[in-house]
TrEMBL record:
PROSITE patterns membership: ABC_TRANSPORTER_1, ABC_TRANSPORTER_2
Gene Ontology terms, MF aspect: ATP binding; ATP hydrolysis activity
GO BP annotations, alphabetical order: transmembrane transport
Keyword Hydrolase tagged: no
Domain (ABC transporter): residue spans on this chain: 2-249
Family: Belongs to the ABC transporter superfamily.
Protein name as catalogued: ABC transporter
UniProt keyword ATP-binding present: yes
This protein's UniProt keywords: ATP-binding, Nucleotide-binding, Transport
InterPro entries in UniProt: AAA+_ATPase, ABC_transp_ATP-bind, ABC_transporter-like_ATP-bd, ABC_transporter-like_CS, P-loop_NTPase
First and last residue of the signal peptide: none
Length: 253
């Protein structure tokens, strides 16, 4: 479903200075349909930049990105629009991704209005209610506003909004990092259930070895803008071949 080949991305170090600081170098990442693939690394390793390239929120300077076998550089307008519902992202901070002036049902319905114009208003409301229930929110939650919810509940709303358009690929960018540990466990449970019950392909960005171990089939380990190790999560995390991966694992125990 996703194939990044030799992808590079650099950011200017300072405004008006020609000195480029490289964020990503020669990234090769492939994600097959139905896989849950982790991208693991410390802060600043380039994980979010990869997430933003996969979701087309950031451009890349070199290499290629094929989505469902088609190079996204050659997408038509129609394909670009379809991509926006095929690929959804959930960010670390759910507050930033929800409209504070819309009820949470309104937020979920917003993406349905854009991507499912075939649905009538009644159907959209019913679908939004069902989604809020699926992510573990009560029936009356839909009428309330983001600020009335806890961080964990807001993240549930962001998840409902992301899956509303039935994306083929869901990118989760550190979706647990802003939450208390007990809440993290509950959201993790929700992901486990979603993976079991929905036909999803997931790219899971995380610095947490244990979460990747629990959720992911395969993992790419990133350090300083490069992939340093990849493989089945159980192999990489039980028998790391790379020194950096071994250090990451040591830091956990
Ligand atoms: N918009 C930007 N402008 C300049 N530099 C950036 C920008 N976005 C990322 N970078 C730099 O690129 C590198 C990788 O950042 P990225 O956010 O992808 O890492 P990360 O592994 O996701 O870390 P974190 O978990 O802290 O977000 C960092 O050195 C960062 O400073």
């Amino acid at each position: 479903m996703v194939e990044l080949k030799g992808v590079a991305k650099s950011f200017a170090r300072r405004l008006f200075v020609q000195n480029r600081s490289f964020a990503l170098r020669d990234i090769n990442i492939a994600v097959g349909r139905g896989e849950v693939v982790g991208i693991l690394g410390e802060s600043g390793s380039g994980k979010s930049t990869v997430a933003n390239i996969i979701t087309c929120l950031t451009s890349y300077d070199g290499g290629s990105y094929r989505f469902k076998g088609r190079d996204i550089a050659s997408y038509t307008r129609k394909e670009r629009f379809a991509f926006k519902s095929d690929v959804q992202i959930v960010f670390q901070d759910p507050y930033g991704s929800l409209n504070p002036r819309a009820t949470v049902r309104g937020s979920v319905m917003e993406s349905l209005i854009l991507h499912r114009p075939d649905l009538g208003r009644r159907e959209r409301i019913e679908r939004a209610n069902a989604l809020l229930e699926e992510v573990g929110l009560s029936a009356d939650a839909g009428d309330r506003y983001p600020h009335e919810f806890s961080g964990g509940q807001r993240q549930r709303v962001a998840i409902a909004r992301a899956i509303a358009v039935e994306p083929e690929l869901l990118v989760l960018d550190e979706p647990l990092s802003s939450l208390d540990v007990s809440i993290q466990a509950q959201i993790l449970e929700l992901f486990v259930r979603m993976i079991r019950e929905r036909d999803l392909t997931i790219v899971f960005i995380s610095h947490d070895v244990n979460v990747v171990r629990l959720l992911c089939d395969r993992v790419y380990v990133m350090n300083q803008g490069a992939v340093v190790e990849e493989g089945f999560a159980r192999d990489v995390l039980n028998h790391p071949q790379n020194e950096y991966t071994a250090r990451l694992l040591d830091a956990v125990y």
